[in-house]
Each structure stands twice: as C-alpha cells, then as structure tokens.
Structures
1.
Amino acid sequence: MAELRTSRRYGKYLKLDAKAIKAAEHYDGKFIVHGNDDTLSAEDMALGYKQLMRVEQAWRDLKSTLDMRPVFHWAPHRIHAHVAITVLSLLLERTVEHACNDTWRNVSDRLRRIQLAQLSSPHGTAWQVTEPTPDAAKCLKSLQIKPPPPVLQLA
C-alpha cells in the first residue's frame, strides 16, 4: 500500500479526490465496436468482442501450458485441424468453468493436486492416487466425474 501512495501514477487515486478523477476522465478512451449484423444490440456486440479477447487469451494459455513453439501449417486440412482442436479445447475449458462455477485456472489448480505415485517395495510395485482435496472432489462432482480409485495397479 505504501508503494501505491508514493506512486506518481496511482498515488493521486488513493484518496477520493473528485477533481482529480474528473480531470483524469479527459484521458479515458472510448469503447467502440462496429458490426454488420443489425439484429445485435450494442451490448451483444461488446460481449462478442470481449469473448474474442477470451479466445485470444485461450490461445496464449494453450501455447504456454503445452510449451508449444510456433506451428506453421501449409496444408489446409492441417490448419483446419489445428484450429478445430484449439476451439474444442476452449469449449472444454468454458464447459468446465460453467459446471464448476469458477475460473479454469482455479479448477485446474485444484485438480492438479490429485497426484499419482509409484510405491516400490521388495514385494512389488503399486500405483496409488492421492485422495482429492474437498475442493477437488467438489469439482469432480460438478463435472460428473468419479474420483479415481485409491490404488490403480499392483504389480
């Protein structure tokens, strides 16, 4: 908080100075969206534009999560497949967000805590799954996915 108070850029906003806020409005931009569909309201077009930003963010997330390097497709069927997979992954992400009523990042973090461990002993090897946390179990239930069994394989 002290850093914000001493900030030249944000410090003036920490106290509610009506004059400073009114003066700063002069520098605020306008949000203009233009479309060729006369049936859409301004709110619908703005929402569509915001969804476009969400799609672009999903592309960036997908590339960073998978550590993808730039992909250059030359064949039309490969371009189509690449876009289709990306759109399907975004659809899956949005479905999970709606089912769990939370962001993808939060749901992903909760489910990532479910781990698979290999336990070795002189008598053999077992693959054991950690017990889901209450939050992870709630996400699985919202998604109608059964929790994994505690032991997957004994060898």
2.
Amino acid sequence: MEPIYTELATRIGLGQSERIAGLFRLIANNTEAKLLLALPGTAHEIANVLNLPEPEVGLMLQGLFVKGVVFPSTKSGVTKYKMCRDLVQFHDASILWPDAPREFLDLWQDFMEEEWPDVARNFNKIFPRPFTRVIPVGVSIEAKTHVLAFEDVREIIEKANVISVTKCTCRLTARKCDRTLEACLQINRGAEYNIARGTGRQLTKDEALGIVRKAEEDGLIHVVMNKQNVDQFICNCCPCCCQTMPVLIKHNISVIEPSRFAARIDPELCTGCGICLDRCYFGAIAVSEDDTTCVDTSKCMGCGLCQVTCPAEAISMVETRGADFVPEKLFN
C-alpha cells in the first residue's frame, strides 16, 4: 500500500489497517490524498500548500465533501475544511458516497467482519462510556415511570428543526437482511449536512414518525448518541448488519448502552405464546422450568421491541436506572 494512504489511515487511528488504507485509496487519488493530509484549512490556504489554483482546490474539496471525507465549517463568513476525524465518521459518511463502487462497499464490509470486533474491543477499553445508547420504541410506559424528552423518540422528532433520512450504511454494505434500508434519521445539524451532500432526503415530522413506526414493525432498535441532547441521528438498527449490535450480541463487547428501562412480564397475563422470545435479540427473555416467561434484566437493553407485539399486553417497560444514567454530554 502506498505510504500516503497509510498516513491517511493513521490520521483516524488505524494506520495498521491495510483495509482502511485501501478504502482511502479507492476514494481519493494521489492529489486528493495530499489535499486531505493538508487539512484543516480554507480553500485558499490549501491551494497555497499544494501550489495549485484555488478554483481547482475548491472543486476537489466539493468532490471530497460529497464522498464523505471532507467536512466544511463556516464561521464569520469563512469556510474551513476538515478531514473525517475518526473511524465512525469515515464509515457513516463515506458509505453514502452516491457513486461508491461495489468494491468500496465490499471492502468496508470486509473490514467490519475481520477487524472491527478487535477495534471495538479496544474502544471499549479506552473510552469511559459507549458512544451510543438505546432508546425505547414508542410504547406505553408505566405511569410511575418518568420518560424524559431525550429518550422519547416521538418528542425528539417533534422538537427537531430539520429532519432527513438516509439509507442505513450498515445494511447497505452488509446485506444480511431485507429490513428497511432507508431508515437512518438525522436531526438538525446532521440533517443539514446530509441534505447539503445530496445523500439525505428531507422529511416532514409525520414522514419521520412513519419511518419510526415501520422500523418498530420491522424489529429495528432506536439508537442515538449517548448524551441528553439528541441533535445528530436516530439510527434504526438490526441485530445482523449494524455496527454495534453484532459485536454486542456475538462478542459481548459493550459498544452501546441500554436505555433506562427494562421489560417486565406479568405472569398472570402471559399466555406463553413465545413471540417475545423471537423479538429479543439479547437473550434476555427465557422460559423457566415451571413454564413461566421471565426477563433477565441484566441482559435487557430496554428497547421495548418485545412489548410492541405482545398479543396479551403482558409486557410493560419499567424504569431500572435513574435519570442521571444518561450523561449530559459525551464523556462528561
């Protein structure tokens, strides 16, 4: 692999990965790679560094913005450009590159299968909390439970100024299921970014709520950034393709935190139909020796998918963690 692409991989902490270097090689030619390494800066500053005409640099920056490796920020009328800051940003943005060849998407999936579990394990050791958390589906919580605004998917949508939807980057590359592809919602700044790139479709609040309802029917789990201010995304994750769910389910790597709630089954109402066992991806629901269906709260992620389809309405969601469980900001 050419050293310049290894250097780009090093910029996001993965200089040892030939696959990540290969992804940069597929997305940027040699001149574009030099531009990425010259960031951050304005188009004028980068033109001086590379000794290229500013209009040419501007076109390259726009192209790399669409590809998902350059991010503009305008303050006081001056636009500065930055390279993707980390693996997650590189993954989520570049996979939505409209002209991404199948080779590029397949190489991403190869990385996720072969290298991501070990990278996730290292992330788990380095960072004090996971980056993301589950929020419950739109189900009825017991009256005594206080559902806060930042864990109510409907209220998050109602309060948003701008909403967009993109294809799920994980299902786009993994292709392990036929669940809804256009399912990742972006809120406010995240929505503005994807709309500007042409990778996101702007939604009304009713359209966004419709996507949420369809996601719940499909058995998808709502995931947001692990902080109280939900202003970036609402992912709707499956257990087989998602960045976080498979490494949690298969490898027990805590790259995602549960919601503040857990399922509880009323034995008087439960008919033992078994639907909830199939809906729980985390092995939190089991049938005991006396044929009672019960929940292991230590495994329950508090997503509420089991409650949505319970025909006997025997499942309720109860608060098991205090309001301060969700941090005000990431890594506070």
3.
Amino acid sequence: MKRLIRARDNNNEPIVAPGGSPLVLSYFNLLHLQLGQSLTLEVPGYELLCVVLSGQAEIAAGGTSFERVGRRAGIWEGPADSVYCGTSARVTVRALRDGTEIAVAGSVCSQPFAPFRILPEEVEMVEVGSHDTHSRRRIFHVLGQNGAGRAGNLLVSELYGDAGCWSGYPPHKHDTENPPEETEFEEIYHYRYRPENGFGAQFCYDTDGGGANPEVVMTRHGDTFLIDRGYHPTLRAPGHEGYIFTILVGAQQRSLVQNFEPTHRHLMAKIPGIQAMRDKFK
C-alpha cells in the first residue's frame, strides 16, 4: 500500500486493514451512517477506539452499551465524545442522527481490556507553538494518559493546526526502540481542512538534514498518510486551518518518546510547549 491514501468513499470498509503494509500493527476505519443505520465491526486481536467526529451513536462492545455518544455537529465544535471498545472482537454502532461519522482507531493487542467511555471533558489538551514561530497547534488527547493500565499501546489524538503553521515540528521520528531516547511507534494521519478546499504538505525522510530524496506530498481534505519510519513534519497553507486525526501504535510500549532531528534540535527551546507535548505522550 502507498503511504498516501487519497480521499474516497470507503463504504465503511477499513482504510488501513489488519496486517497491512507498510503498517502492520494499526487499524483505521471511517464509518458514515444515517439515522437508525447500524454496523457491526469484528476485528479480533485488536483493541479499538470509536471517536464520534459528528452526529451521535449508540456503541456496544464487550457486553456494555454506551448511549448517546457524540455531542458535536462536526470536528470544529469542541472535544470528541468517544468509546474505548477494549479487545472485544465485536463492536456494534447504531446511528442516532443523520450524518453520523465515526473514526475507528485500532492496534494489535493480546491483553484483555474492558470498554470505557471517554467524555469530552475528560479529553486533555496541550497547546504547542506560537504564531511568531509559525507552529501553533492544539493537541486534544482522546486516548492518552487516561488509558494507562486500561488500554494497550494505542494512542489517539485530534490536532488542530492554525493556518500557515507547521506541526510535527521541530522534525522528529519514532521508528526505533531505544529508550529513553526514542520508542518505536507506527502512526496514521487523517487530514481535514477548513475551508475544505484547503491543502497542506507532508514531509517524510530518514536522514538528518533531509537526505537526497525526501518524500513530500500535497495533502487535501480527507487524505490519509501512513508513517512507518522517518521524520515527518507537516505544513498547512495560509488561509486554511488544518485538522489531523492521529493514531499512534507502540511496537513495545505505550509511552511515546520522540527523537528530534539533530539539525533542528536547537528549535525545541524556541517553540513554546514542546516539553509539555512530550510529557502528555508518556
């Protein structure tokens, strides 16, 4: 599978399926349901998190039913209402409103975990960067420290980036298990823009300084990018706010430690909130 997956109607089928390539630990699906429509997911061997992007749903997992999940009309209207579905092999979702959209994030997981709800007021936010440094973004940790002891190696967040600003910056990577300097994580980015005709750029490269052949792609509303290695900063064009639904899956643990690119590591002291961001991922 290519790293960049262009926006399309996925017909409620996984965008990143179990055992795929280049990611082997991660799962990602987008569900689009109308009032009364229901769908059952069966993803054995995975832990799943259902994040309501818009609308409202009833979500049943592991013998527990969670009622009226979802409080926002769209992703730009506050933190998400979500259900961590645990390692139940079957999850059933029923839409309570037209236009219900649910992002389903998953990770390979062999441990048994029980479902629980994550209310919007339980979502932690950290602000990183500034307008002066062209790097302001807010990261809402849907499944982060609140999953310690209750979830496997799955981390999920929603990033809101200001127009014309960078995120994932200074550039960092997390493709090697070498604690305490770095831990190995796969990552999925799913992009949205406001207005929807917006666009950005995604960089991905292995070598400090960019090397001879860095990968650079134009990202548009509804695209998805898969990160299995390398430094991966992101840029939004002026005039367009950006949103990234982010899935991180740890190969050996749930504590994410980013390794910042040596060439640009000095910028860590100049961009506000970098250490707070790092702390929230641990």
4.
Amino acid sequence: MAKRKKSKTALKPSATKKKSSKSNQSFLKRIGRFIAKMLLAFFILSIGFVLLYRFVPVVFTPLMLIRVVEQVADGESVKLRREWVSIDEISPNMSNAVIASEDNLFMEHNGFDFDGIQKAIKHNQRKKRIRGGSTISQQTAKNVFLYPKRSYIRKGLEAYFTVLIELFWSKERIMEVYLNVIETGNGIYGVEKASQVYFDKPAAKLSKSQAAYIAVCLPNPRKFNPQYPSSYIKRRKAKIVNLMHAIGPVNLKE
C-alpha cells in the first residue's frame, strides 16, 4: 500500500502555538475591555444616583425590597409604611439623639471615625455581642445603595458610597436621608412614620425622651419597641438623654 503524503499546508507546532497564544491574548483583551466598560458604567451610574438623591427623596431602598420579599416568602401581608419629610419637619431632638447614640463626631469627620472603628474591632475580639463602628454617613450609604448582609465586598462598596455622599451631600442632607430611610420597626421606615406609630404625633413634635427611645431601638428595630421599652431600653435611653445634654444642640447647617 502506498504511503500517504504529508500535506504541505499542515501547520508546524510552533505556528500552532503562536496562533493559540494570539487567540488567548485577543480573548483576554476582550475580557479586559468588557470589565473596563462595566466599571465605567458603574462609576457613572453610582455618581449619577448620588447626585440625583442630593435633591430627590429616597422613597425605596434595597432593604425595603428585601423585607417585602421576606414577608411574601413567609406568607405574611406586605408591610411597608414610610413617609418622607424634610429635615425642617423633624424635631432637632431626633438628629441630636442619633448623633448621641450612633455617631457623636458626625459633624467633625469626613465619613469615617477611625478611632471608633479600632475600638469596635477590639471590642468584637473580646465580646460575643458585635459592636458596629459605622458612622451615620456609612449607615446612610449602606441603607440607600446596598444590602445589610456583612461581607468585605459590601464594606468596600459602603466605603466608596460614603466618600461620594460626603463629597456631594451636605451633613444636613445626609442626616435628612438617614432619618427618612432607616428601619424603625417591622415594616416601618423613617422617623416620621415611627413617631406617628409609637407616639401618635409627627416627628416635628418629638421630645428628647421620645427621640432617644427611637434612637436606642435602631440597632434592632424589629426586636425593640419604643412604645413598650424593656428595662434595658429604658437604661440605654437615659444614657442617651444625658449624652444629648452633654453634647448640646447640633447645628446641621454648619
């Protein structure tokens, strides 16, 4: 039987390797361009939404969506009670209370309290009960743009959005958004609706004590109820009121 001649057009091994290498480089370039476009789109959209929310009320947040999905999954009726009001329609006692309770350096820092973060890390290494080191600015960034589950990715994004809102919003606007979107009960969001539900009055008329009760319950608003405070909540409320007196009135317009 005659031997089959080798094709003159057959690629040499070295040529095959070069072609494969060029193909891989082309694929990596396409991936790189795609990632670059996605990052650019993310930066444009994120900055755009931050600028938009500087002027427009935030009427819905990722946490609200998560809670609604949880309610539907559990077969419960959907509870979503919120009412946006301007900062001028919220008692100064309320902003003073959350500053005393959550972030007494709110007017001084640029979004991050690094001493507070270090203290929280040391506390969490020794204690079982986790203490957060987030500022009001960080919490606002998380509540408006992100999700509550803890992860390094979320903390990184939280830091990014914190820088943006500190750059483009005033302290007064950060506080206004924070007080309107925070979870204040089961299906209740914002201090205006919380004030109506728990104290049968608008947020503009909250006393120091009532504002402190709402602020103290914020770390776990679905467990703690300002209307029926436990002895623990009463003790914490008294400490917050004392801190409010020590700090004095806070001028958010500075």
